[in-house]
Structure formats: C-alpha cells, structure tokens
Amino acid sequence: MPRLESPAAPTQQSSAEPCVIVIFGASGDLTHRKLIPSLYNLERQGVLPKGTLVLGVSRTEMTDDQFREKLAPSVEKFSANFETSRWRQFSQRIHYYPADAAQVDAYPGLNQRIHDLAQGAGALKSGGSPNILFYLSVSPDLYEPIVESIGAAGMVTEGRRWCSLDPASSAWQRIIVEKPFGVDLASAVSLNRALGRVFEEESIFRIDHYLGKELVQNISVLRFANSIFEPLWNRNHVDHIQVTAAETVGVGSRAANYYDSGAGGALRDMVQSHLLQVLAVVAMEPPGVFDAAGIMREKLRLFSAAVIAQGTDVPRLAAFGRYGPGEGSSDPAYASEKGVDPSRRTETFAAIRVEFDNWRWAGVPFFLRSGKKMAAKLTEVVITFKPAPTNMFRKLGVASAADRGSLNRLVINIAPSEGISLRVDGKVPGGGLKIASAKLDLDYAKAFGGEHIEAYGPLILDAIKGDLSLYKHRDEVEASWRICEPFITSEAIRASIETYKPGSWGPPAADLLLAREGREWHNPRHDEVR
C-alpha cells in the first residue's frame, strides 16, 4: 500500500524566475510537436520569464541555427497564432548541444555550456549558478542513466541551497519526467529511487499532460465551488462512474519501438497513467486548502482505499482487445502491424472495473476504458446517478427512469471539445403525461471564451514556478501501478483477448463487464461527439 506521508509543501515562487530549460531528446517528436510550440506560446502570451533560455541536447550534430531551422515548421504548424517575426525573435533564445546524454563524460561540457548561456543572458543567481529545469523527453530506458549522470556531474546544488544564508537567492534545479514512469511496480519504484538519490521530491515533476487540460482542472471547480453537486457526489446518489479515452487512429509506427515492446499496451499507456489521474480528481475528498500538498494528500488517500483485484476475480474485472483489419481498406489488424509480435498478445483496448473501500464510494464501481481505432475520438467522464426511490407516475402508465434507460447523467467532455452536459427528465408538451429526457449543455469555449491552450505550456510554467499541483507524487505513481498490476500480469486475461472491429466501441467482453451488473457504456453516436 502507498505510504500516507504528508507531501512536503512545494517551494513555490510568487513569480516565475528565469532559467535554462535543458531538453534531453531535443530531436524527438515531443520536442518538435509539443514542447517548443508550447514555449513559443508562453513567450507570445508574455508569461515566459525574460532571460529564460532553451538548450536542446541530442546526439545529432547540429549548430544552434540548424536546430532552429528544423524546429520552425513544427512551431508554425502546432502553435497558436504563429508570427514569423516573433518566432525569429524567440528562436534566438533556443540553443543546441550535441551529446550522448547517457554518457557521463558529456556532462562537464554540458554544464559549462549552460553556465555560459545563462551568463550571457544575465540569468545567473547571486551564487554564480543558473536555475535549471531539466526535461526528460527521451526513451524511458535512458531516464536513470541521465539522472545518475546529472548527479555525478554535481549539477544539482539543491542541498547546498538550503544551507545558504539566503536560500531565495540561490539557484534551483528541477526535473520534468515524461511518462511512462516504469513498466510495472518494481520498475516504478526503481525509477523513483534513482530520482530521489539526486533530486528532492519537491524538485521532481512527473508530468501527465491530461492534468493540464482545462476540463480536467475544471472538475475540481465543478465539484467544490458548486453546492448543488457536492451533496450528491457519493455512494448514496451515484450509481457508477465511467472514464473513457477513445482514439480513432491505430498504433502505426509506435508499435515496434514502444507499444509492442513489452512496455506498452492500452492499460499501461493510458489507464495506469492518464485515466487513473482523471479518476482521482473526480473521486478524491476535498482538500482543506487547494494547494499541491493538499491535492496530493487526498489523491493518496483515495488510492490507498482501492480494492486490489485478486485471484479468480481478476479476469472478471477486466476486458482486453485488439483491433482487427479495416473493412474495405488496406489498414492492417494490430497483429499485422509492422514490428508487432502477435504472441505477446498486447492489447489495444483495455477496460477495468475498480472500487474504493472508503466512506464516500464504498460499493460504487468505476469503469475505465481506453482503445485505439474506436468509433469516435473522445475523452469523457460520465457520472450516472441512481434512479428516484419510487416512481410516482406509475399509475399513469409511465415507466420508471431505470426502465426507460434515462437515469440522470452528468457528462464531462474533456476532448476533442470541452463541455459539460446534464441529462434530466421532463414532460413532453401536449396533453397527457409523457416523459422524455433532454440535455442541459454547456460549451466551455462558447461560455468562457479564450483560445485553446496546449496543456504542456501551463505545466512547464508551473514547473518553473515550483508548483506541483498538477504533477504526480511518487506514491501516486506506485499506487496506480498496484491497482493495474493484477490485470497486466493476468495470463487468463491475455489468453482471452478478443479482436474487435475498427470503428466499434471495443470487444464484446467490454460490454459484458458492465452488463453483468445491469449497466452499459455511454457510447455516443459520432454526431453527438462535440
């Protein structure tokens, strides 16, 4: 079980300080599609601290100018309101250092380059060192070697910082770690220990871009700032909760290098990381104060109450599938994708049932599912409420809400568009009493305006500020692996994996997972998806 220690309060500055952002894996897809465009948008919005520099690190030999030229098309494609003149100005803050980050002998030169850049930008602290934000955008097998090399090179001075007479004037070093955080519980524990040997926990930022999505953050506001919802948010009124993340695309080129490597699959890739974090925001208790320490504490309490699947119950609580060939197209089945070993029986669809044995949620099932080549691109949370205790309209020939299949349902759309809808019953106009359900809809963008912001930007800015509110504590990571590990290691689930039709909502076993209890998935038609 996770340790229920109180997470240390993060050392958050009142404003973001300039720093050198060192991106390991600078030639990779994430850097080009997400990180640099997000930093450009932060600069365009005027919130990236002046004096902040970016140093990309990768093995490819390139000059600063060549690196900037390679980045330009991606920034133009993936950033909002691209302006050539602004990009040219911002790109002068981007630099490059060719090195193999897994080799410890690369770090003296890297350290010197960081200091030279910071000095040139006037970004050195009073102690003569810069603030550094390391970003691990590399293959997960390089995480530990890079962290160990950073430590061996003496680039982390956090301990000496707190011995200083004026800690606020001393430099800080922080690290952002991309998922996956391990491939199972043992590897996650090992990674956390490696990070902890070099960085303080308050300086480790385990990023989950789902937590940067506006509607995920808004779930807390919806619950805790509206008195109409919180009294109903418990086992007395909620029948069950679903969290879905569906994609219409297949695995494609990710199969050989990641998805079918023994470290991938829908459960590891999506459920263990993103969906359990969304679930935690939905189900945690209200923190006394809405800050990083309070949020982390309540997530840990929730995960500690998870009922871990055991023995013969494990196959009954999960459903795995992998997509078949496309009908009328040349799209291959997953088992025929390039680089896939069919004998691994890696799942492209996973659904699990989870319960929490605590006062608020005892007896309420949570269903989580994620899949490739599904009927629609969709990320949503669905809270289905229990029916009214009695049907007072029965003498008028009106069936109960349960019999009509029209239970009150709150749907929180996270992607592709953001919005909230509540299904309620009402009388159909005209003579007699006829009841039908209708939706009360809130389109987030129409209601509140503002441009769409890529989640990585605000999350990187939070790391610069030292704000851990939207990041994962080490115990959250390990607890989520404990929940998922029985399903990952179950030979019975792998042996019963089903093939499902592309463009469907997954294998029949997923429907059976809910049908056993008289429930069904919320499967909107394509034209109902925002």
Structure description:
It is a single chain. The protein has 530 residues and is α/β, with parallel strands linked by helices. It has helices spanning 29-44, 64-78, 84-91, 107-120, 143-152, 158-161, 185-198, 214-224, 254-259, 266-283, 292-304, 313-316, 401-404, 444-448, 456-465, 474-488, 491-495, 508-515; strands at residues 20-24, 53-58, 94-98, 132-136, 173-177, 204-206, 238-246, 318-323, 349-354, 366-371, 378-385, 409-415, 419-427, 435-443, 498-500. Helix 1 packs across helix 2, helix 5 (143-152) runs parallel beside helix 7 and helix 11 (292-304) packs parallel to helix 16.
The strand count comes to 15
Describe the main β-sheet briefly: 9 strands, mixed
Give the terminus-to-terminus CA distance.
39 Å
Percent of residues in β-strands: 15-25%
Biggest sheet: strands side by side, in what order?
14-13-12-11-7-10-9-8-15
Q: What value does the Rg take, in angstroms?
A: 25 Å
What is the 3D shape? globular
The helix content, as a percent range, equals 25-40%
Give the overall average pLDDT: 86
User: Which segments are poorly predicted (pLDDT under 50) over 5 or more consecutive residues?
Assistant: 1-14, 160-165
Instruction: Please state the structural category.
Output: alpha/beta
Count of runs of 4 or more consecutive helical residues:
18
